[in-house]
Amino acid sequence: MQCLRFLIFTFAACAHSLLFGVDSRPNILFIIFDDWGWQHAGAYGCDWVKTPNFDRVAKEGTLFKNAFTSNPKCSPCRASILTGRNTWQLEEAACHNGLFPAKFAVYPDLLEDVGYTIGLTGKGWGPGDFKTAAGRTRNPAGPGFDEAKMPTLAKGISVKDYATNFQSFLNRQEAGRPFCFWMGFSEPHRAYEEGSGLRLGKKLSDVKVPGYLPDNEVIRGDLADYAIEVEWADAHIGRALKMLEEKGVLDDTLVIVTSDHGMPFPRVKGQIYEDGFHLPLAMRWGKGIRPGRVVEDFINVRDLAPTYLELAGIRPHEQMTGRSLVNILRSEKSGWIEDRRVMLIGKERHDLGRPNDWGYPVRAIRTPEYFYSHNYNPERWPACNPETGFGNTDDSPTKRWITENKGPFYDLAFSYRAEEELFDVRTDPECLKNLVNSPEHRDIAAKLRKQLDDQLIDEKDPRALGQESVFDTYKYLGNRSRKGYAEWEMRQEEKER
Hints:
Blueprint: H1 2-20, E1 27-33, H2 52-60, E2 62-64, E3 67-68, H3 74-83, E4 98-99, H4 107-113, E5 117-122, E6 128-129, H5 162-171, E7 179-184, H6 196-199, H7 217-247, E8 253-259, H8 274-277, E9 278-279, E10 281-284, E11 293-295, E12 299-300, H9 304-311, H10 326-330, E13 343-347, E14 362-366, E15 370-375, H11 397-405, H12 408-414, E16 420-424, H13 442-458, H14 485-496
Parallel strand pairs: 1-7, 1-8, 2-11, 3-12, 4-6, 5-7
Antiparallel strand pairs: 2-10, 3-9, 8-10, 13-14, 14-15, 15-16
Helix pairs in contact: 5-7
């Protein structure tokens, strides 16, 4: 195997030398937030969450207005990034806190095979099992660099010094050899230090509250705490860019900044609505991307892996179903470059909290005008059962306020949903008014439903092929001791006996 890897690396390096005289393959710095909503960056017009370093990447490179994940939860999204596949094409890895099968190739391994040095700091793929059952020897995102720690501004922020760990990786980098590094923030994942936003200078009057959340001091305070964590992580981007500048390789490095899904608030993270699966995304590459561009094309995170491989001079792996972005990156234009106007989204099981460990299966389709979703089991609670604490919504002051006060915001976040939902995202981007039963929209819903089903069949989605029972065979491998769940599960078992 080592001999084969050497031959592959030698061939790739020689090919690039013949074509360009030097190894023109870019370094790759992939930076991913954990639970950061797409609208909370200055580059997208937000003024109460300060992201100067993300904004710099966007200004000196390209800002993507329509970037998406096919599954708005940590481990399914990250598996999609690594493999270049939609999550319903990933067997056990379609589920949160599941198994990452070794049968699926991941881009860090493929790049390492052709001479890239690979590294990871912070959160790579997870949560879930990539070792015991899957047989991988390291996180699929690469070998870890997590030695450096630092004091933080607030409780709940990770003590990992991401930027210094990246510097440690750079210090070991062999001259002239390209690298691919994954910088995975834990921020702004919960839990937060309650009141940290106010303590650190945020004004509640500046906070913008989305229409699906109540507008009061509790929710504004929670959002302010979230903003502090986003800003903490953004500062590490600035430090990493400075390190690349000092090493003289910033313009030789493709820098990608994104998130795995939307913010950890009710009706967002883990839920199939716009703010759950719409992502921030900016890329900078001094030698390869004209600065100041804004791209409208629909981009999926599964498109990243084939992009990296093409830039490395090798064909995307045969398993990958994403489409390379290289032509979009190299274009001189803004706006619609390749006219990518359709996106598929979906989920299976995320967290525990229903009988038999059932999930809440959904498939959806997004176009520039509409968002249509098919909830396959509308008789189930969408965020898990109330008696188990709505486990597919992170605990928070916002969640506590909504569950205690009930009312319309409770219904939006936790109540049963219609089997079909249709929203006009041009006038209703927060997906508040379901149009599926509107006479003038019935034909639109039917057309989108057929388009969705046809594309899912093409992608060999088991659920579209009548093999949906396979998803119920995938085991949950995380902690089953969530408060209230163990007792509820015991009562369910007693009923069955």
